[in-house]
Amino acid sequence: MITPTGPRRIVAATRRCLGLLLAAGVAGCAALPAPAPEAAPQVELPPLLAPATLGASRDAQQILRAAFGEHEVVLRSVVHVTPDQIEMVILTALGQRAISVNWNSKDWKVETAPMVPDTLRPESLLADLQLALWPLAALQAAYHPAGWEVTEPGGGVRRLRHDGRLIAEVEYADADPWRGRYWISNFRFGYALAVEAEPAQAAP
User: Fold this and answer.
1) Which helix or strand (DSSP H or E) is residue 159 part of?
2) Other beta carbons within 10 Å of 133
3) Is 29 in a helix, a strand, or coil?
4) How far is C-alpha 57 from the geometric centre of its chain's CA atoms?
């Protein structure tokens, strides 16, 4: 297991989604229209925050280990945040681009590999990113009016609830998750992510 509290039951849709993502890395990229967050019809997600609410410009290169049932897949992400925009690129373990997202709080620009299914929603990826990395006060200010609750009960844990139900949990191994390790357990969609910053490369 990659997380101390990762769920064991994984929905079939998540298994198909991540399996296709691996194949997509070999297939190249194609521009596709991205649905606006409010237009996604299936499952309500927490509101996305404007890039400026992070309070700083940050960059991260991360290794993602996604667990679903008995399966794991290794991906990489490159994240760049400024007060004006969030840029996120998801790569296969071999470095081939699968998804790229640009979000400026008003407009989306998304590129996906042809086989990446519509069920892999870019706003969901950004919601996980913000839940783990954004300041607690900024999340609470945006979440509470929309009926979501995020808390830090202590011990390096952050929890997300909706209508009293525990939706997701983040556990941190380091004080600065942008440069360290953390785990996300999503109990609604049944997957777990182990996220680790890639080691900085020494200058030549």
Assistant:
1) strand 157-162
2) 19
3) coil
4) 18
Q: Could you tell me which residue, 98 or 9, shows the higher pLDDT?
A: 98
pTM of the model: 0.75
- Nearest Cα to Cα of residue 23 among 87, 96, 85: 96
Q: Where are the alpha helices (DSSP H) in the chain?
A: 12-27, 122-133, 136-143
What does the pLDDT average to over 158-162? 97
Which residues, at least 6 apart from 161, have a Cβ–Cβ distance to it below 8 Å? 148, 149, 150, 151, 167
CB 67 within 8 A of CB 3: yes
DSSP, residue by residue, 101-128: EEE-SS-EEEEE-TTS-TTS-HHHHHHH
- Is the Cβ–Cβ distance between 80 and 126 less than 8 Å? no
Residue appearing with tokens 């997600």:
45
CA torsion, points 17, 20, 24, 27, in degrees to nearest 10? Answer: -150
Q: How many helices (H) and strands (E) does the chain have?
A: 3, 11
Percentages of the chain per state (helix, strand, coil), in multiples of 5: 25, 35, 40
Residue 97 to residue 148: CA distance in whole angstroms: 33
- Burial (0-12, 13-18, 19+ Cβ within 10 Å), 46: buried
CA-CA distance, 115 to 135, in Å (whole number)?
34
Query: In this predicted structure, what is the pLDDT of residue 88?
Result: 94
